[in-house]
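Here is one record:
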Amino acid sequence: MNRQAILPLALALFSCCSGWSLQPALAAAAGGEPAATPVEEATTTEPAASPLQLVLDRRRRLLKVMEGDRERRRFKVGVGMPGWETPVGSFRVIEKTAYPIWEHPAKGVRIPPGPTNPLGSRWIGFHRDCKGRRGFNGQEHLEVKGCVTSGFHGTPHRDSVGGAVSHGCVRLFDEDVKELFEMVQVGTPVTVLP
Protein backbone atom coordinates (compact mmCIF):
# COMPACT_ATOMS: atom_id res chain seq x y z
CA MET A 1 0.00 0.00 0.00
CA ASN A 2 1.46 3.40 -0.87
CA ARG A 3 2.04 6.16 1.65
CA GLN A 4 -0.70 8.40 0.24
CA ALA A 5 -3.22 5.63 0.81
CA ILE A 6 -1.96 5.00 4.34
CA LEU A 7 -1.85 8.62 5.52
CA PRO A 8 -5.59 9.35 5.87
CA LEU A 9 -6.18 6.09 7.70
CA ALA A 10 -3.10 6.47 9.88
CA LEU A 11 -4.06 9.98 10.92
CA ALA A 12 -7.50 8.72 11.92
CA LEU A 13 -6.13 6.01 14.24
CA PHE A 14 -6.11 7.02 17.83
CA SER A 15 -5.24 4.98 20.71
CA CYS A 16 -6.13 3.67 23.96
CA CYS A 17 -4.11 3.61 26.91
CA SER A 18 -4.89 6.22 29.39
CA GLY A 19 -7.28 7.89 27.03
CA TRP A 20 -4.30 8.98 24.99
CA SER A 21 -3.89 9.01 21.25
CA LEU A 22 -1.36 7.19 19.21
CA GLN A 23 -0.44 9.14 16.09
CA PRO A 24 2.27 7.54 14.01
CA ALA A 25 4.70 10.17 12.79
CA LEU A 26 3.89 10.20 9.10
CA ALA A 27 4.78 13.78 8.21
CA ALA A 28 7.10 12.53 5.48
CA ALA A 29 4.18 10.72 3.84
CA ALA A 30 2.31 14.01 3.61
CA GLY A 31 5.28 15.72 2.00
CA GLY A 32 6.44 17.28 5.26
CA GLU A 33 9.75 16.90 7.01
CA PRO A 34 10.78 13.34 7.81
CA ALA A 35 10.51 12.38 11.48
CA ALA A 36 13.73 12.67 13.46
CA THR A 37 13.17 9.24 15.00
CA PRO A 38 12.67 6.13 12.84
CA VAL A 39 9.01 5.20 12.63
CA GLU A 40 7.40 2.16 11.04
CA GLU A 41 4.21 3.19 9.31
CA ALA A 42 0.96 1.86 10.67
CA THR A 43 0.40 -1.25 8.60
CA THR A 44 -3.07 -1.52 7.10
CA THR A 45 -2.66 -4.17 4.42
CA GLU A 46 -4.85 -7.24 4.05
CA PRO A 47 -4.29 -9.62 6.96
CA ALA A 48 -1.83 -12.39 6.18
CA ALA A 49 -2.31 -15.93 7.36
CA SER A 50 -0.42 -16.23 10.62
CA PRO A 51 0.81 -19.47 12.18
CA LEU A 52 0.76 -17.71 15.55
CA GLN A 53 -2.10 -16.69 17.82
CA LEU A 54 -1.96 -14.40 20.84
CA VAL A 55 -4.04 -15.43 23.87
CA LEU A 56 -4.38 -12.87 26.65
CA ASP A 57 -5.68 -14.04 30.01
CA ARG A 58 -6.71 -10.80 31.74
CA ARG A 59 -7.33 -12.43 35.11
CA ARG A 60 -3.87 -14.01 35.22
CA ARG A 61 -2.27 -11.00 33.45
CA LEU A 62 -0.53 -13.34 31.09
CA LEU A 63 -0.05 -13.19 27.32
CA LYS A 64 0.73 -16.44 25.52
CA VAL A 65 2.07 -16.70 21.98
CA MET A 66 0.67 -19.94 20.59
CA GLU A 67 1.73 -21.85 17.50
CA GLY A 68 -1.07 -24.36 17.03
CA ASP A 69 -1.43 -26.12 20.39
CA ARG A 70 2.15 -25.36 21.42
CA GLU A 71 3.01 -22.42 23.65
CA ARG A 72 5.91 -20.63 21.99
CA ARG A 73 6.36 -17.79 24.49
CA ARG A 74 4.62 -16.14 27.44
CA PHE A 75 4.80 -12.61 28.79
CA LYS A 76 3.70 -10.97 32.03
CA VAL A 77 1.41 -8.02 31.21
CA GLY A 78 -0.56 -5.16 32.74
CA VAL A 79 -4.21 -4.78 31.70
CA GLY A 80 -7.05 -2.25 31.91
CA MET A 81 -8.24 -1.04 35.29
CA PRO A 82 -11.86 -1.44 36.49
CA GLY A 83 -14.04 0.81 34.34
CA TRP A 84 -11.43 0.82 31.55
CA GLU A 85 -11.09 -2.94 31.06
CA THR A 86 -9.16 -4.43 28.16
CA PRO A 87 -11.84 -5.57 25.68
CA VAL A 88 -12.72 -9.29 25.74
CA GLY A 89 -13.24 -11.25 22.53
CA SER A 90 -11.62 -12.34 19.28
CA PHE A 91 -9.59 -9.77 17.35
CA ARG A 92 -6.66 -9.51 14.95
CA VAL A 93 -3.57 -7.34 14.94
CA ILE A 94 -4.63 -4.30 12.90
CA GLU A 95 -1.50 -2.14 13.08
CA LYS A 96 2.13 -2.10 14.20
CA THR A 97 4.19 1.02 14.89
CA ALA A 98 7.76 1.34 16.06
CA TYR A 99 8.62 4.47 18.05
CA PRO A 100 5.04 5.74 18.49
CA ILE A 101 4.13 9.30 19.46
CA TRP A 102 1.79 9.62 22.44
CA GLU A 103 -0.79 12.43 22.46
CA HIS A 104 -3.27 13.35 25.17
CA PRO A 105 -6.65 13.64 23.40
CA ALA A 106 -8.03 16.40 25.65
CA LYS A 107 -4.90 18.46 26.24
CA GLY A 108 -3.07 17.79 22.98
CA VAL A 109 0.24 17.27 24.79
CA ARG A 110 2.51 15.14 22.60
CA ILE A 111 5.31 12.97 23.92
CA PRO A 112 7.79 12.01 21.22
CA PRO A 113 9.46 8.62 20.97
CA GLY A 114 12.05 8.12 23.68
CA PRO A 115 12.59 6.84 27.21
CA THR A 116 9.71 8.86 28.73
CA ASN A 117 7.09 7.88 26.13
CA PRO A 118 4.33 6.00 28.00
CA LEU A 119 3.86 3.66 25.00
CA GLY A 120 7.46 2.52 25.11
CA SER A 121 9.17 1.74 21.82
CA ARG A 122 6.51 -0.43 20.12
CA TRP A 123 2.76 -0.39 19.52
CA ILE A 124 0.66 -3.35 18.29
CA GLY A 125 -3.02 -2.40 17.90
CA PHE A 126 -5.73 -5.08 17.91
CA HIS A 127 -9.12 -3.43 18.59
CA ARG A 128 -10.64 -0.15 17.42
CA ASP A 129 -13.78 1.32 18.99
CA CYS A 130 -15.23 4.52 17.53
CA LYS A 131 -17.98 5.03 20.12
CA GLY A 132 -15.77 7.15 22.38
CA ARG A 133 -15.21 6.50 26.08
CA ARG A 134 -15.60 8.28 29.35
CA GLY A 135 -14.70 7.43 32.88
CA PHE A 136 -12.66 8.22 35.94
CA ASN A 137 -9.05 7.08 35.84
CA GLY A 138 -8.36 7.52 39.55
CA GLN A 139 -7.06 11.05 39.05
CA GLU A 140 -9.42 12.80 36.66
CA HIS A 141 -12.56 12.31 34.61
CA LEU A 142 -11.73 11.70 30.97
CA GLU A 143 -13.94 11.85 27.94
CA VAL A 144 -12.43 10.52 24.76
CA LYS A 145 -14.37 11.39 21.63
CA GLY A 146 -13.89 9.50 18.41
CA CYS A 147 -11.95 6.31 17.93
CA VAL A 148 -9.80 4.62 20.53
CA THR A 149 -7.56 1.67 19.82
CA SER A 150 -6.53 -0.98 22.30
CA GLY A 151 -3.23 -2.70 21.83
CA PHE A 152 -0.01 -4.06 23.23
CA HIS A 153 2.78 -1.61 24.03
CA GLY A 154 5.87 -1.13 26.11
CA THR A 155 6.10 1.16 29.12
CA PRO A 156 8.79 3.03 31.01
CA HIS A 157 6.80 2.26 34.19
CA ARG A 158 8.06 -1.26 34.80
CA ASP A 159 6.21 -1.59 38.10
CA SER A 160 2.86 -1.29 36.26
CA VAL A 161 3.39 -4.56 34.39
CA GLY A 162 1.38 -7.22 36.20
CA GLY A 163 -1.31 -4.82 37.43
CA ALA A 164 -4.71 -3.61 36.27
CA VAL A 165 -3.62 -0.04 35.66
CA SER A 166 -4.17 1.01 32.05
CA HIS A 167 -7.13 2.46 30.19
CA GLY A 168 -7.67 -0.71 28.17
CA CYS A 169 -4.28 -1.37 26.67
CA VAL A 170 -1.92 -4.21 27.49
CA ARG A 171 1.45 -3.15 28.91
CA LEU A 172 4.60 -5.21 28.53
CA PHE A 173 8.18 -4.67 29.55
CA ASP A 174 9.77 -2.80 26.66
CA GLU A 175 12.18 -5.64 25.87
CA ASP A 176 9.20 -8.02 25.70
CA VAL A 177 7.12 -5.82 23.39
CA LYS A 178 10.12 -5.55 21.04
CA GLU A 179 10.26 -9.35 20.88
CA LEU A 180 6.49 -9.63 20.40
CA PHE A 181 6.59 -6.96 17.66
CA GLU A 182 9.00 -9.14 15.65
CA MET A 183 6.86 -12.27 16.11
CA VAL A 184 3.47 -10.94 14.99
CA GLN A 185 2.14 -9.44 11.80
CA VAL A 186 -0.98 -7.59 10.76
CA GLY A 187 -3.67 -10.27 10.79
CA THR A 188 -2.28 -12.33 13.69
CA PRO A 189 -5.32 -13.55 15.70
CA VAL A 190 -5.73 -12.15 19.23
CA THR A 191 -8.04 -13.76 21.80
CA VAL A 192 -8.69 -11.86 25.04
CA LEU A 193 -10.13 -13.94 27.87
CA PRO A 194 -11.89 -12.41 30.89
User: Anything to note?
Assistant: The two ends are 35 Å apart (CA to CA).
